[in-house]
Amino acid sequence: MERRIGVYICHCGLNIAATVDVKEVTESAASLRGVQIARDYMFMCSDPGQDLILSDIKEYRLNRVVVASCSPLLHERTFRRVCREAGINPYLFEMANIREHCSWVHDDGATEKAKGLVRAAVMKVYYDEPLEPMEVPIVPNTLIVGGGIAGIQAALNIANAGYKVYLVEREPSIGGHMIQLDKTFPTLDCSACILTPKMSDVGSHPNIELLTYSEIDEVSGYIGNFKVKIKKKSKYVDESKCTGCGLCFQGCPVIMKNEFDLGLADRKAIYIPFPQAVPNIAVIDKREKRPCEAACVDACPIHTNVLGYIRLIAEGRYKEAYGLIRDTNPLPAVCGRVCYAPCEEACDRGQIDESIAIRNLKRFATDQVNIDELEVPQITKTGKRVAIIGSGPAGLAAANDLALEGHEVTIFEALPEPGGMLRYAIPEYRLPKEILLKEIDYIRRLGVEIRTGVQVGQDISLAEVKRDHQAVFIATGAHGGIRLGVEGEDIAGVIEGIRFLRAVNIGEKISVGKKVAVIGGGNTAIDCARTAKRIGGEDVRVVYRRSRDEMPVSSVEVAEMEKEGVKIDFLTMPKHFLSENEGLSGMECIRMKLGEPDDSGRPRPVPIKGSEFTMPVDTVIDALGQVPETEFVQELGLSLGKMGTIEIDHKTGATNIEEVFAGGDVVTGPASVIEAIGAGKRIACSISRYLRGEPLEVEEEELGEEKLSKRDIKDLQNRFPTQKRVEIGEEPIEERVGDFREVTLGYTPSEAVTEALRCLAGQMEGCIECHECERRCDAKAIDYEMKDEIVDVEVGSIILATGYQQIDPSVIPQYGYGRYDNVITGLEFERLSDAAGPTEGQIQLKNGQPPNSVAIIHCVGSRDKNFHEYCSRVCCMFALKFAYLIKEKTKAEVYQMYIDMRCFGEGHEEFYERLSTEEDVKFIRGKPSQVTDRALTEEEKGKLIVTVEDTLLGSLIRVPVDMVILCNALEPTADAENVARLFSISRRADGFFMERHVKLDPISTMNDGIFIAGCCEGPKDITDSVAQAKAAASEVLSLLTRGKVEIEPIVASVNDEFCSGCGLCEKMCPYGALSLAEPEGVMVVNQALCKGCGSCAVICPSEAISVSHFTRLQILGQVEALAS
Amino acid sequence: MRGVAENRDMKTMDIVNPISEAAEAIIEAGGETLKSCYQCGLCTATCPWNLVRSFLIRKLIHESQIGLLELESDDVWLCATCGDCVERCPRGVEIIDIFTAIRRIGTHWGVIPKALKTAMGSIRTLGNPWGEAREARADWAKDLGVKPFTAGTELLYYPCCTPAYDRRARRIALATVDILKKVGVDFGILGPEENCCGESVRKVGEEDLFRSLAQANIEAFKRHGVKKILVSSPHCYHTFKNEYPDLGADFEVVHITQFLAELMEEGKIKPIKSFPKRITYHDPCYLGRHNKIYEEPRRVLQGIPGLEIIELPDSREDSLCCGGGGGRIWMETKKEERFSDIRIQQALEVSAEVLVICCPYCMLNFDDSLLTMQKEDVLEIRDISELVNEVM
């Protein structure tokens, strides 16, 4: 077909015509091959200009058009439309840029260059072929990245129009920087007050799917059809269950800096960053796996949060440590002294070097509080009455828990004072009575009535007790002494152990002879021996029928006893006692050897025939053990087991009689304090359930003891250098055996902290997995096993609103940030000034005092070639706002140290004037050189001195102030480069995302379908961010309304004849548009992904690929025309 | 070149007309960044002169920008080219270049302080600023058995005019030679064939003289086949390393601190004695700020047994100039305006017994201050080479 080309040369006023001789260019164009008409005109883009082309097309039957004017970025679209209107395929149009590429950049030779450019365009159009644009449908969802004000606003606009939005935010809550601000300039609106309504709209909007604590992992696809992988980081909290009640973080023992308050306040490892967070869901900050198995917690019968309180002690938070212990253990001070500490045996550190001295640390924590001063919580009464018989550890523990539940608890105690074995068996030197009494008094303060001297079965019948209460808990312990049952046991001088200890404990006059033998190898035996030593026994011996290894007590206690001079006769058993003058004179014993194991698993002692011998003794104390005394329960018909123990359902503590429960030693026979407390707590729980009418049985998790593997131990040994436990101080032996003073002294704070720091769980950052939150969470929302999740979404368009960060001013050392306490950043000031912030809005120095003078330094890192050349745009105004707030709250002198005041925008200039006139703020024009504390005069002492030239005065001044606020620059986020790469968009030299056109298209990027809004595009204030967000939303909505999008048909295609399937092009293609087709063995182009860049065409060794509209013929034709 | 209205004497109103070509002239003469200045005054507030007297660099630059600079003003000759302001300038204004450009215009019109004129004359005729005979240049090494540099000698030691002629500073050269001999380095000197390096000559605006000195030196070095030069002065170091290559030089240059650090690391210097004193180190502007050499001298000092090293309040990038750069070493500074006095005071405040330097200009200035402040009994000024030499 004949080429009939029209060429139009634009003057663009004088933009082109001043340097290019347009007439000459027109004349030259007229002579080119195929050109039917060439004209010049003042403004080709104007309506008359366009009409000119239209009428020429008709008149001269043109079928191709060239316009030589400005950049095709501006008017290619216009002239293509004109062509289409006249019936010419828009791709048979070419534009020669003789303005930006020619008249604006050349003086001489511009005309020649213009002629060349026109020649080339004519040649190109000569070879152009008609093309049809492709249409693709648009997925009606939108992805918005970043939940600051821009992301929030854009999301709301799109969602309100009825379209689905995925809003992805990296932090646990949306709100961005704006929610951290106190007030906004210049209206001084409360930032949170104007933002939170929008945040909560986002949170509850049916069209917005909010993905917080999430990041973008992968983006593929093209406008209208993006596929995005979103990594949802595990919050370890089930979002569907969490109610945001905050109970979890009250209990969390791990204290960390709150990022929201820029470290000016603390948060816990489980936290909600701020009260108005959206979503209002807790997050666990878990950073690493705990190095140990926390076997201590599992080993403890009441699962005390050992690692939690040790962590608190390590941080010097002793009272909080006590609180955490007290939450599970009603007798912490008792257990801190006499618990047999199964936790220590289980402690994983014990496998590395030595276990943590957990009991001593517990004792330390309890030593730091005065129990009498502890506050009693508010308790709502249930009106239910519970009787507890026995005030030993089991009874007290149950009373404590039941009282906290709101039940009315009465304890019946047969003895004159409460405490059971704690009071009457454990000697004073191990557990001072005063301490026990304090803990019991606290339980009384919870509303528990303890009726002492009332023996059930004697003073009041059990049936009566049962009648007056809705539930009864029998916890009478095991007070009946077991006798040897040998000849002579009734001789005066042979005493039963528990009676002996009780007598000493209540201060009865009881004496022992010089030679004392204690029969038995358990706790009672040791207590008896050490007590005997203290009341006059000189030669005190423990006589035990097995060997040291079988003693059912801790080796530490045996060692303590031996240190105090008590001897032990192992493998020895009394046969009978000898008397002389009605008194005890000796004891015939027999030696034993160890035989086969018995029921208890210990080797059975077997007498050695003929080994009898006589031991001269003055006093013998039987300490063989105890049995419960349970005759009184028979009136109700409770079933009893052997040795008189009460039989119960071990899962619930229920006896065979309805509403009667039993637990502790009365059920198990003599056991430890902590086991009794455990029983009391379990049964309290059962009773509560019973009283609420719930089923008694609860599923309890089986906890196996977890040991570390050899390999774990090796790794841990490499990580944690050997460090022995801190030994606890003791009273000197010679002195202490003379009286009943407490033997151990307790840790000093520094000892305690050193010991606590040995805990492996205390060595990690973030959550230590102590499960305290899990215990407290009523909604059962905590899930430690939660994993990161990848969410796949398909979206039609994407808005990036990833915001900014502020430069760390410590890179400018002369301003002293990080070195001087009272040099702070603007954002830190916002938190200080915020009524909901760490100081409740008090603007104060680190020492808590209000400042008398404040310097505000502008342009810190902005407008500075050493850091950022650009102006951060918001600092002048927020600096004025700071001045206002300081003046309002402190009356301090305020100095603004600025270079230029840039107060454009509505109300800004007025605010500036108000600050200068009404508020008496001092403006010093100059950039300070340094902030120092080196005083030259008396007035400067203790101040921060800012050195600056007041450039308006032309003199150097030193301004002494109390506080310096640095207006530090806004800069691209640290990961802006990665984000740009992920979304295939460009960044400017300053690092912010690049817009398609700085003036006319500030929202779009070079990647179609991806838009930018807010500070990720450059520093801007809230007003501008909101405007951009709305603009971006409008771009998205216009795409969505169209429902489909035209894609330029400028794409690559492969000539199957020539393609060898080598795959070089696939490697070159930045868009993943090329792939190998099997089984044909040739490459194919996904034309929807192809951007027509031409990389593949260039690399293809067999020239099998060509790009439409830029074929070899078309390009070479242009080159030829330029060269001619 | 200051534009003055006819009624300049009228006290009521100081009306002046700017000379529009002035800024262009300064830019032409090397002050290319003049117009970048946005008048924030950071330079003024940074400049050490303002510790002792008023010196409004910003104002001077503004006057230059609009053509109101008074060439005869003393201010033009104050800048000691310490570079502190340049490091920090937010607009990247090369303030030293601007001063140099202004001074070039000044010397072109014959406006130059008398002291500088004398020094320049001496350099022009004798190759040194001190008015000493060219032939006497190697006198310091007379009895040391130092060989003249010949083809094939490994290292040229270039002591700088100051240690070569000045009796106080001579100890730098002596200590250096001692060390070189002990280590067994093959080195030589050029003696009378050397000329002043010209670094400060260039800074006072005598560009032609600088170029002729540089040419003469480069020719001498080439003639003798010099490949590597050891210098005692950071000023020589700076110009040899950064300015001579543009004029055709092609040789390696090391400052004594770099050289000593390397020898110590290689184990060629093994201290056998201890120097049990509390010392502090002064970063010379031309070693530190101008050439970013902060670590090597510190490494050398850390290698000397017995030293207790304390940092001065202004150290490294913030080092306080001794006042000797930019030609100031040849000019008289009023007693109450010497920053070297403040520096000595700082050394005394940290209770140093020795102030360690590694620049001959710093040595002269600090020695003078010590004398006038009458503190010789509490503080010593020692070159780093002296310390190393003493413990070897």
What does this structure look like?
The complex is a heterodimer of chains A (1124) and B (392). Chain A is of the alpha/beta class and 1124 residues long. In chain A, strands 10-7-6-34-45 form a 5-stranded parallel beta sheet. In chain A, strands 19-18-17-20-32 form a 5-stranded parallel beta sheet, with helices on both faces. A 5-stranded parallel beta sheet of chain A has the order 22-30-23-24-25. The mean pLDDT of chain A is 93. In chain B, helix 13 links the parallel strand 5 and strand 6. The longest helix of chain B is centred in the middle third of the chain and has 18 residues. Chain B starts with 20 loop residues before the first helix and ends with a helix. The chains are: A alpha/beta (1124), B alpha/beta (392). Chains A and B meet through strand 41 of A and helix 2 of B.
Short description:
The complex is a heterodimer of chains A (1124) and B (392). Chain A is of the alpha/beta class and 1124 residues long.
Please supply descriptive tags for the structure shown above.
heterodimer, A: 1124 residues, alpha/beta, Rossmann fold, FAD/NAD(P)-binding domain, Fumarate Reductase Iron-sulfur Protein, Chain B, domain 2, 7 domains, five-stranded parallel sheet, B: 392 residues, 3 domains, four-stranded parallel sheet, 8 strands, disordered N terminus
Poorly predicted parts of chain A: none
CATH superfamily of the largest domain in chain A: FAD/NAD(P)-binding domain
Q: Which two chains have the most extensive interface, and how many residues on each?
A: A-B, 24 and 21 residues
With strands numbered from the N-terminus, the spatial order across the biggest sheet of chain B is: 2-1-3-4
Write the layout of secondary structure elements.
The complex is a heterodimer of chains A (1124) and B (392).
Chain A (H helix, E strand, L loop, with lengths): L4 E6 L3 H4 L4 H9 L4 E7 L5 H14 L3 E6 L2 H14 L7 E5 L1 H5 L6 H18 L6 E4 L3 E5 L3 H12 L3 E5 L14 E2 L4 E2 H14 L3 E4 L2 E9 L2 E8 L14 H5 L3 E3 L8 E3 L1 E2 L11 E2 L10 H5 L6 H9 L3 H11 L3 H7 L3 H5 L2 H4 L5 H10 L17 E5 L3 H12 L3 E6 L7 H4 L8 H13 L3 E4 L9 H7 L2 E4 L5 E2 L12 E3 H9 L9 E5 L3 H12 L4 E5 L11 H9 L3 E3 L2 E9 L2 E15 L5 E5 L5 E4 L2 E4 L3 E2 L32 E3 L2 H4 L4 H20 L17 H10 L13 H4 L12 H8 L15 H5 L12 E7 L1 E4 L3 E3 L16 E3 H8 L19 E8 L14 H16 L2 E6 L9 H10 L4 E4 L4 E3 L11 E7 L4 E7 L1 E6 L1 E3 L3 H7 L27 E3 L9 H21 L1 E4 ...
Parallel strand pairs in A: 1-2, 1-3, 3-4, 6-7, 6-34, 7-10, 17-18, 17-20, 18-19, 20-32, 22-30, 23-24, 23-30, 24-25, 34-45, 36-43, 37-38, 37-43, 38-39
Antiparallel strand pairs in A: 5-46, 8-9, 11-12, 12-33, 13-14, 15-16, 21-31, 26-27, 27-28, 27-29, 35-44, 40-41, 41-42, 47-50, 48-49
Helix pairs in contact in A: 2-6, 3-4, 6-37, 7-8, 7-34, 11-12, 11-16, 11-28, 12-16, 13-16, 16-28, 17-25, 21-22, 30-31, 31-32
Chain B lengths: L20 H8 L13 H5 L10 H10 L17 H5 L6 H14 L5 H13 L28 E4 L2 H5 L4 H14 L3 E2 L10 H5 L3 H18 L3 E4 L2 H10 L8 E4 H10 L12 E4 L13 H8 L5 E3 L28 H11 L4 E4 L2 H14 L6 E4 H8 L1
Parallel strand pairs in B: 1-2, 1-3, 3-4, 5-6, 5-7, 7-8
Helix pairs in contact in B: 1-5, 8-16, 12-13, 14-15
